[in-house]
Amino acid sequence: MVSCRRFAQVYSSDDEEDSLAKMLSQGQNSRRPKETMEGKMRKRKKVSLNEESDGEEEETERKKKKDDEETPPKELDPDDAKPVGEPVKVTGRGTHYGQFEYGGNRYKLEDSVLLHLEDNSLEPYVAIIKDITKRQDGSMMILVQWFYRQEDAKKKDGGKWVVNDTRERFYSFHRDEVPAESVMQRCVVNFVPAHKQLPSGRGFIVRKVYDTVDKKLWKLTDKDYEVAKQREIDLFVDKSLARLGDLPDFETEEDVEKAKRFSGKVKKPHVDLRKDKDVFPISSEYHSILDKFDSLTDNSHRNECLAKLLEAVQSICFNAGDEANDESFLWPDAAVSPVCALELAINVSYASDYSKYNQRIRTLAFNLKNTALLAKRLLSGELEPEKISNMSPTELKVGLTNEETEKNEPDDAERMQMTDVRCSRCSHIKVGLRDIVQAGHRDRYQLECIACGNSWYTSRDEVVSSSCRY
Questions:
Q1: What's this model's pTM, rounded to 2 decimal places?
Q2: Does domain 14-244 have CATH number 2.30.30.490?
Q3: Which parts of this chain are annotated as the region Disordered (predicted)?
Q4: Are 222 and 3 in contact (CB under 8 A)?
């Protein structure tokens, strides 16, 4: 017998479009907000997260269909959202598009966006656009899939979920149809597995999936979702890691203890040559070079890794007889010694873990090949091999250490407009204006404390009343 997988699948095929709302999110739907217009100001419609029982959902669906049949086409306003491009398909619910335009901005399917709220909360909702429909009455509606805030995700036994970062949201398979005019702006959402360290900078973070039926949280790496949903989560994780780069793993207590046991006692890596024999197949060209310079070790796997690193720096070198410049390095004379020193540093640091040794070789070979500055600094001796072997993925990507990057960049206080607002978390008056979100006739200010990293949204009146420094 096949066990039931988590979360029922939400479909949106042509044959099922007329009953889409009935299948959305296991009995969850949204209320259609009232439209408002003040003078010539751009309209901004509001949305809310609702949970209805099955009976209430069916009644809502019947009323919606009846309203759609009885409501005549409305007169379009220049400020209304408009479809862009050719229709994707036409169903009983309306005409479907791949993009729409609103407020001078263009939005497309799978965009992550902020949505205007129906309540008075200053922090907007976050969702992904899954469908764009122009109804028969001319109104533009979008089907969105929600990211839950901590306060919106209910626990089955009551209480609140604990999050470690104010940017964190919970992904869900709850979908609602809302007016296109409720969109405020695009945003960035990064799906980060639990074993990876959180990235710095802007953007929301997703580490768990909220089950709106059982009121539980699941990890992104859990493998008992429905196949389509697991594929969707895996795709988001892959896209996020590709955008963020190689995020370092969290260092567990077991890793720390293992490092202490082997610290100062390492002579040779414990390598099982029967496994991963051809991880780094060695080229006869690089083997000959290492042999010529008497740089081969008594371990064939280490020799393969030496050849891999040597190949990575070859592109910045010149051959004898070629025209050279001041920053060029003679191949292979200038490359062999620094590369051997780098491999030795990696061997000393990761000799106790064959897998981590291989992973570090791959990471350094990739960055030496693609970051010319890093390779040049290795061959010139500007960066010590021991220093390079311990650099983070972000440092390797730019070829600079964090200390060097901080010297070249202005600090947060110089980049942001500072205010006199006091941080509610650490009580320091080191709060800057990170962003201004346009929300109709009301602007929301995103503030960030440079002392503790706390970030929140507030109104303009609160900032002004705190004597903002210009």
A1: 0.45
A2: yes
A3: 1-96
A4: no
Q: CB–CB of 434/416 below 8 Å?
A: yes
Per-domain boundaries in the chain: 14-244, 268-391, 412-465
Does residue 87 have a cis peptide bond before it, meaning omega lies within 30 degrees of 0?
A: no
Q: Is 349 left (phi over 0), alpha (psi -120 to 50) or beta?
A: alpha
Phi, psi of 316 (to 5 degrees): -95, 5
Residue type, 306: L
Q: Which helix (H) or strand (E) holds 211?
A: strand 204-211
Separation of alpha carbons 467 and 470, rounded Å: 9
Helices (H) and strands (E) in the chain, counts: 14, 19
Q: In this predicted model, what pLDDT tens digit does every residue of 162-173 receive, in sequence order?
A: 887 888 999 999
Within 10 angstroms of residue 419's Cβ, the number of other Cβ atoms is 22
From residue 22, how far is each of 55, 171, 175, 380, 429 by CA, in Å? 10, 21, 11, 66, 50
Task: Please give the angle made by the CA atoms of 181, 184 and 185, to the nearest 5 degrees.
Answer: 125
Q: Cβ contacts of residue 17 below 8 Å, gap of 6+?
A: 91, 92, 93
Task: Give φ, ψ of 161 to 5 degrees.
Answer: -75, 150
> CA angle at residue 163 from 152 to 437, to 5 degrees?
65
Q: Which amino acid would we find at residue 5?
A: R
Q: What is the pLDDT of residues 61-107, one digit of tens each?
A: 555 555 555 555 555 566 789 999 999 999 998 999 999 999 889 99
Band the pLDDT of 274: cuts 50, 70, 90.
very low
3-state helix, strand, coil in the chain (%, to 5): 35, 25, 45
The average pLDDT across 42-57 equals 53
